[in-house]
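Note to self: keep these together.
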Amino acid sequence: MSGRGEGAARLCLIGPPGAGKTSVGRALAALLGWDFVDTDELVAAGTGESPEDLFVDRGEAAYLERQAGLVRGLLATPPAAPQVVALGSAAPLEEATARLIDPARTVFLDVGDQEGIRRAGLDAPHPALGFAPRALWRIQMAARRPRYAALAAHRVVTDGRAPADVARDLATLVKQAGRTGGER
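Structure:
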């Protein structure tokens, strides 16, 4: 996983909600002895609100603007120590952020629609919401998957797999690529 830029190694995980970016990222960071950063947690720490509350209370535009600013700041700064970064699912869609994502250091964690819908908690009917969340999921993923794939050197499908198993596979990939320099 060679890539551009100075500083310690950084591996970004991108993909749809429910793909396992956070759970796989934490497990991978632990296996490698690297730091772990979850951009949704950065949003929460920076605003005092969960990403879900920020989205609902202030709207999608405010959430995406806040997320984009934090992610761009993170990615524009070379890490002092090796890190695994779980990017929020919408982060790679923003052009300025996408330009900072190094495909050679990025993995697209993908999940099929049925599994992703289940993991995201959208598998139960929500008639009171006035829209069809499963249909919205499918529409969003049809639009987003090509973007995720274009920004990552590797794609790993997580359907039916435990986060620890996916993390072990990714740790092997990282080690084979010789990017464990600075390992702690």
